[in-house]
Amino acid sequence: MKFILISPKNRTAYNFRGELIKDIISAGYEVIVTGPDRDNVDKIESLGARFVEIPMNKNGVNPAEDLKYQKALEKLFKKEKPDVTLGYTSKPVIYGAIAAKKAGVPHIVSMVTGAGYAFTANSSKAKVIRTIMSVLYKKAFKCADTVIFQNSDDQNEFVSNNLVKENKCKVVSGSGVDTERFYVAPYPKTVSFFMLSRLLKSKGVREYLEAAETVKKQYPDVNFYLLGKYETNMQDAIEKDEIERYINDGVITRFEETDNVLPYYEKCSVYVLPSYREGTPRTVLEAMSMGRAVITTDAPGCRETVIDGKTGFLVPVKDSMSVSERMLDFIKNSDLIRTMGEAGSVYCREKFDVKKVNKDMLSYLRIERND
User: Fold this and answer.
1) Rg from Cα positions in the chain
2) What is the CATH number of the domain that holds 26?
3) pLDDT at 121 > cutoff 80
4) 130-162 pLDDT, tens per residue?
5) 185 inside domain
6) Are residues 107 and 226 both part of a single domain?
């Protein structure tokens, strides 16, 4: 039996799907992972999977390049004859499903890990991309046997827009989190807020920076941390100069992207993600697993992760003032950091533990575990 994971970025394959890969191998399957380059191939292979490089421009809009990607996947599927394929994020979902159908793959599964820029932005360019994406999604979902969403809002939107039939849809609680690896850690002595994200407008980075600046003026000893790399060739990337201003003014401390995020969660009291929309934000799950209270938005994907007023706070999208007000709540009543953090840790283990999520994933992939 053979399974192929169609990945947009090597780092997400081992970081977000690593436990799933190991579970599928334990079920007796040979696992092949496709990725766009050779970055971190050793980490994928260390899971027991075989890696195949298939170049793909994740953010490009060149139809010729995308068709080339689809044909390369189709060629791979015809050669390897997998029993199951799973693609996640837009291009692997779209071109992976179409290629798998053309190659005669018996069971084709697609996973929508978030609606993405085209469905969150309102610019004229985003609207054009959204129209094109909708046509492509509809075609791809006709090829898929099962379409997995990470929150019910995304499923309902895709179904209501006639992009996918409801009887094909399943919902899982994100990619899950390894609650043993992300252990409950002691809190720092100084109240500290932390955001881990790609530095994009749609992730709410600007709202985090503005809120941090507001609070810092009142409480200069409070720490604000931001971890993420500067993005290029992204429609909603935040300019480096804009972020550097907050760094130079002493508002925030920024860290580079890393595979070991544990020390940064340990440094914070409260985790903040003012995103405009997500699938299910993995960083929120990791923070909750480590006993951190969370401030996030009342938006698709985000609202499912927090019990408002118990494990953290939900705030409106694009509202930095609300973010700063909730930050002040934690500063003025520091007991909330512990009580909400502890409640979040319990909630995370009940709903988002990777073992529970992967049990559902294996079921939807029609893979039976040997144990």
Assistant:
1) 21
2) 3.40.50.2000
3) no
4) 888 899 999 999 999 999 999 999 999 999 999
5) no
6) no
